[in-house]
Amino acid sequence: xxxxxxxxxxxxxxxxxxxxxxxxxxxxxxxxxxxxxxxxxxxxxxxxxxxxxxxxxxxxxxxxxxxxxxxxxxxxxxxxxxxxxxxxxxxxxxxxxxxxxxxxxxxxxxxxxxxxxxxxxxxxxxxxxxxxxxxxxxxxxxxxxxxxxxxxxxxxxxxxxxxxxxxxxxxxxxxxxxxxxxxxxxxxxxxxxxxxxxxxxxxxxxxxxxxxxxxxxxxxxxxxxxxxxxxxxxxxxx
Length: 238
What we know:
238 residues; alpha/beta; Immunoglobulin-like; 2 domains; five-stranded mixed sheet; four-stranded mixed sheet; elongated
């Protein structure tokens, strides 16, 4: 694309446009003026660049043209103008590339940093895996007990801990009792946990994703006595 643009600009010539009120081509220079935008032509700033865009871009046809000159007397080499237009084209390509990178990053920006798990009276969670995106700073797990039995009979919680420590956490939870939601207070092996809830209730827990160490398997499970063997799943850090 840029090679074709260069070839086109090498044969650039002058052609009048509706915004130009004076036009002359003598083979060496192009004199032009604008009805209301001639004031800042000599400063080489945005006004000049705007005129270049309006005058040169249409692929003009005089192969003898070497300079473009405004009424101010300012002369610009066609080569310089060509370089400017090519630079501008490159900038557009860079902006386009940045937009594509932004779109590619969109999934990261839109990472879901929460999930909902349901538990029922049949001792089942509705999920066997919870995926935690690495892009999240914190992650929230909400537990909904969709059963009908009370907390004291069929209470459920969600506890997150290293898979290797699951049984120890369950045993310590049984010792802690229902008053502590079947979780040992300040248990260093527990990453996060919800309180124990009965049918129709819900509870949430939020933890820092950095608490999950890469390469270490983690699990979620219910620590109510006798529940963990059926109510458990894996935590995946992705």
